[in-house]
Structures are given as structure tokens and as C-alpha cells.
């Protein structure tokens, strides 16, 4: 059995099918049976190549420099130019002989190329368009083509100058440019369509249904919490009169809150960082000042409380605030879709460009809608809803004290407020990490994310605090201690897993991370197989679910309503996990399959 020359992960030069052009590739695996190397080009294309079609970079560069410095064709052409027109025979025989040799070399090189294209994955939306992604690879190919064509062009000029072209060489003009034709053929391969082919959430019908189901679920949960007995036996709750659902003053307070957070976002404080490259290679800039906005918001709320402003006004008009948030979200979604119709193709979201109005309106048609430097999606992701969640929790705490005539809040309310405050502060402190999430890099900003950020987060995530106001639950200190330990475990898994991943991405060679093992991929990144990411594939989701359970336990077990958040969170993370699995399989290919074999459990160890 012949031994292999190239190791997995090694960067080499691989021949492209049907041509003599070499591009930079990375070896991903080797088949001992067929003796073929699986290599990955910089644009993600995977092919199987013979060992004869692969060359090391060092030898490749050496051959290129050698041919450019001592080309026999150049010496022959130079001598032909020095001959007189009266002695053409020898020059003609030499030129014709060299042309025949060069023609044979080209045919042999093309015939020797034997590449077997791997069957693309079922969901692969990226295909090779004939050009490498990197500028370096493109320059190398042009140099090769130039070196192959230059001797023939010199001979062509001499023959035209002295009219020495015999009839049998009339066809050589086309043959001389065969490489150029191959290159142009590769260039004209159809580019992949940017249209969304795989529709999530049940396609158009599912998206249409969710546009009603999401706000209706929020209203239903809030109305159930208002009942004396929020059990399933009393479902559905009585619906209030329509005139009681809207108040202009409440809508004005919501607008004031939204634009106050926008003002904090525009303040020139905090560092400016770049996001991940877009499809056109451009990187957007983001100002990281979410934690500063939180501090300013806390100062503003403290000032209002100092001047005796009744913050429990939020509790008294909670349903009206939810209706105002839905109305504002609908208007913002309509604006976003209308402006997306004029957006360039490269600025559209890969997951919201199906061509169907309902689906694209729901998923978000434009990836990063901006008004100047004001990024609407990035702003809504962390500011109005997430910080508003903390303010609502505080309002519920004050409302509990007032309604039940308490000098201090209940232990259950303190736990809920503390746990969720820690979660929000952590998100704002590590704000930069959100730039690598699917919400920012893949999902468009449409109805789904707008309602999720401005309605779902502040009004559903605060469900436990809202529930405790009307249904106080007493817990003992030992129980509170046990729940606190559970939340700390979840937070530790969540934060340490994310930090482990982020630190490895920034600097894989960090000596502090030397204990981590990983599987190299063709993208240049590694897949961790030790630490938290060797325990389950998505340890951060595991930490999220444990924390969600700890947030609900202070509400007791009288009703299932406070645990809706846990059920919803599990369903949401399972959906995200399935989407992440598909994305990673598409991005990392065979390396992801090896990773899944090494780490079989997705979220729950030994279960799922």
C-alpha cells in the first residue's frame, strides 16, 4: 500500500478539473482504498484529487520561478528575432517544432487531470463559481496562465511580422489559447442563486400563522396571570374590552423609552469593533456601549424614584404596554420590508430572500438595515427589550410591595429579580459576543426578530415576576439556597462554555488553552473536542435551560404557567440547535461529521 505524502490540514496547491490551473487548497482526509485526497478550496468546494494532481507550495513556487528565469522558448524566440528575413526556414522549423511540443504538453496536462467531484450535501447553497475567494489564489492562477501563453505569443508576433505562417499552422491560434478558453469557461459557470430555498417554520403558511400566534400568546399569558386561578381549567381567559387595551399615554411612554435607548446608543462612548465579513467582504462597525446604556438607564430610573414617580404604573397598565409594543413592532416591520425592496442583492438576508412576501416579511428581507451608522437590528437585539426586561422586573417588585403592604419584597421576588438581572448584565458586559450569533450574521431583521426583541423578551421573560405579584409564593431559606446553587451551576456552564469558545477563536495558540484538543477544518478553524464543547455540542444551551428552570422554581408548583418559559426555552433552543447543526455541517463538512462522532450528545448528556 503506497504511503500518503500530504497530511490532514496541510495547505497545498491542487489542480482544478479540466485545466492546468492550480489553486490553494487544504487537505481534509485521505481514502486508503481509492488513494484519493479530499481537499477543500477557499470558497468551500470539496473535491477528490489524485496525488499527482497535488503539489506542495514550496516546490510549486520553485518551479514557477525556474520557468520564468530560464524558459527555452524565450531563448529560441530571442534567436528568431535576430535572424534576417532571408533565412526563415530554420526559424520556422524551430517555431513549429516548439509549438507542437507545447501543444502536446498541454493536451497531456489536461488529459492527466482526473478529479472526482464529491456529491454536494443536500442542503448546500454555495457552489464554486470559477474564481477563488482570495486575491492571492487568483494572482497565482494568472501567473501560471501568463507563463504558459507568453512563449506562444512571442512566436505568434514573429510569424505575423515576417508572414512565415504555413497553412498547416492556421489552427494553432485556437490551440495556443486553449488554457484561456478553459479559464473563461470556468469564469462563466453559473453563480449560485442567493434565493432562499429552504423555508423554516413551515414555509409561508407557518410564517403567516406565527405572525398572529406570537402576539396572541403574549396576550394570553398576561391575561392568565391576571386571573385568581391561572390553571389550565380556566383557559382561555376572558378577553377585556377593546377600549381597555389601548391608551395613547401608554404608547407615548413606550416611544419615549425606545428613543431614550436610541439616544444612549448614539453616545460616543465605548469602543468601536468590526463585525464578521459580509458576503461582499465588507465589515460593518459597531459601537460597544450597551453596559454604559444600562448604567445611564439605572441612573434615570433612580432619579424618577427619588422624585416619587410610581414605577408600578407599569404593572397597572401592563397589557396596554404589551399592545403598544405589538403596534410599534408591526409598524417597524412594515418600514423594514419597504426599505428592503431597494436594498442591493448582497445586503439581503440569506434566510429571508425567498421571493414570497409573507415569508420574507416574517423572517426579515434585509440583513443589516441601517439609518446612517445606526444599526436597527443590533440596537433592538440588546437595548429596548433586554434593559426593559430589568425595568419591568423592578416595577413588579415595587407593585408586590404596594399591593401586599410589604416593607420588603418576598424572597421569591428577590431571587427572580437577582437571577435575571445577572443574566442581562452578563449579556451587556459581553456585548461584543452577539456579533457572531446567527441573529446578526444570518437572520434578516423582520417581524420575527422585531416582535421577539421588543415584545417577547420584555413581556414573556418577565412572566415569573408578573405572576408573583398576583400569586405570592413563600419559600424557605434552604429552598432558596438550593435554587441559587442551581442557577449558579447553569450560569457557570453558560459563561465558561462561551468564554472557552470565544478565547479559542481569538487565539488558538494561547498557552492557557493548551489543554484543549480540536479537530482542524478546511476553513482554518478548529472544532473543540475537549472542555465543555467535548461534553455536549451546545453546552451554552444546556446552561441556558438550567438557568430558566431556576428562574421558575421560586414560583412554586401550584400552576404550570410560570414554567411556560422553560418549555418555550427548550423548544426554542432545540430549534436553534437543529439550525446550528445544519449550518455547521454545511460549513465544516467532513470535519463536522467526525466531531459529531466524537461528541454524540447535542444538549443534554446521555439524553439528547
UniProtKB/TrEMBL annotation:
Domain Tudor: 4-62
Pathway, per record: Steroid biosynthesis; cholesterol biosynthesis
Disordered as annotated region, ranges: 52-139
Spans through the membrane: 205-224, 250-269, 290-309, 321-338, 445-469, 475-494, 515-536, 556-575
Keyword Transmembrane: yes
Subcellular location: Cytoplasm; Endoplasmic reticulum membrane; Nucleus inner membrane
UniProt keyword Glycoprotein, yes or no: no
Single annotated GO MF: DNA binding
Protein name as it appears in the record: Delta(14)-sterol reductase LBR
One GO CC term on file: endoplasmic reticulum membrane
Reactions catalysed: 4,4-dimethyl-5alpha-cholesta-8,24-dien-3beta-ol + NADP(+) = 4,4-dimethyl-5alpha-cholesta-8,14,24-trien-3beta-ol + NADPH + H(+); 5alpha-cholest-8,14-dien-3beta-ol + NADPH + H(+) = 5alpha-cholest-8-en-3beta-ol + NADP(+); 4,4-dimethyl-8,14-cholestadien-3beta-ol + NADPH + H(+) = 4,4-dimethyl-5alpha-cholest-8-en-3beta-ol + NADP(+)
Membrane topology: Multi-pass membrane protein
Enzyme class: oxidoreductase
Feature: compositional bias, Basic and acidic residues: 99-110
Biased composition (Basic residues): 76-95
Sorted UniProt keywords: Cholesterol biosynthesis, Cholesterol metabolism, Cytoplasm, DNA-binding, Endoplasmic reticulum, Lipid biosynthesis, Lipid metabolism, Membrane, Nucleus, Oxidoreductase, Phosphoprotein, Receptor, Steroid biosynthesis, Steroid metabolism, Sterol biosynthesis, Sterol metabolism, Transmembrane, Transmembrane helix
Domain of life, source organism: Eukaryota
Family named by the database record: Belongs to the ERG4/ERG24 family.
One annotated GO biological process: cholesterol biosynthetic process
